[in-house]
Specification:
Number of helices: 8
Structural class: alpha/beta
Distance between the termini: 41 Å
Order of helices and strands: EHEHEHEHEEEHEHHHE
Largest sheet: 7 strands, parallel
Number of strands: 9
CATH superfamily: NAD(P)-binding Rossmann-like Domain
Oligomer: single chain
Length: 271
Amino acid sequence: MVSKKAYTAQASGIGRATALAYARYGALGLVVADVDEPGAQEAAKEAKQQATNPDFTVYALCVDVRDFQSVEKVFAFAVDKFKRVDYSVNSVGIAFAKAFIADNSLDLYDNTQNINTKGVLYHTKAAVEVMLKQDPVVIQGHDRVRTIGRGSIVNVCSDASIIATPSQVEYNASKFAALAITKTAANEYGASQIRINALCPGPIETPLLERYVAANPAIRDKLAVGTTLGRVGDVDEVADSILFLTSTAGSFVHGSTVVVDGGLANNVPGL
């Protein structure tokens, strides 16, 4: 990995796994931010323990992704400490239990949009504002010099960004919007050499999935059968995909929707 400094929002599940992966793969600096500050501190501690770069530095901060000023402060902190942000990953999201549209809660809908949709918009806006001020990074390839741009942004969306599953209109709407924000930003800032991609996980072993399973134990097997691989995914599999997107290996991947779901979205039941 060439770029050195990363910001990841969320201290559990996919966000935690991504922070630890950056540490293992040699990142120089990392900011882990979450509304759960003790959780962010614990993830930062683990990242420090697993870091392979002897100069690795990590910070844990509290962030409320519903508040743009809160998000801006995290980026300002990162720039103050590291002078630039090379990667930025937002994996914050919520999902609640299910109801058809006629029976759903409008308050619940609003809260879901505030976190899942505004959180992606605010993260993308704050990251772009920082990266526009950075010089592009130039590396030596196999036989030529090439640029890998000013920075790379990954918004963790969902299979629900591309599949409208019944009984979760709040979540579906927020994730479709998150994907639209990501693709719009990619169209707007590609010419500025800022790479922006969406990563859409399917069923992954996370605290969010565990809450679903606690309410409905049969859901785990149902989700596993829904994938063509026949299993639920691991957070490290998502984290590895994020690292690819932000690394030099993914330097020509831009505006993409990368689906990491074991084939769930591609599955045709009964075949």
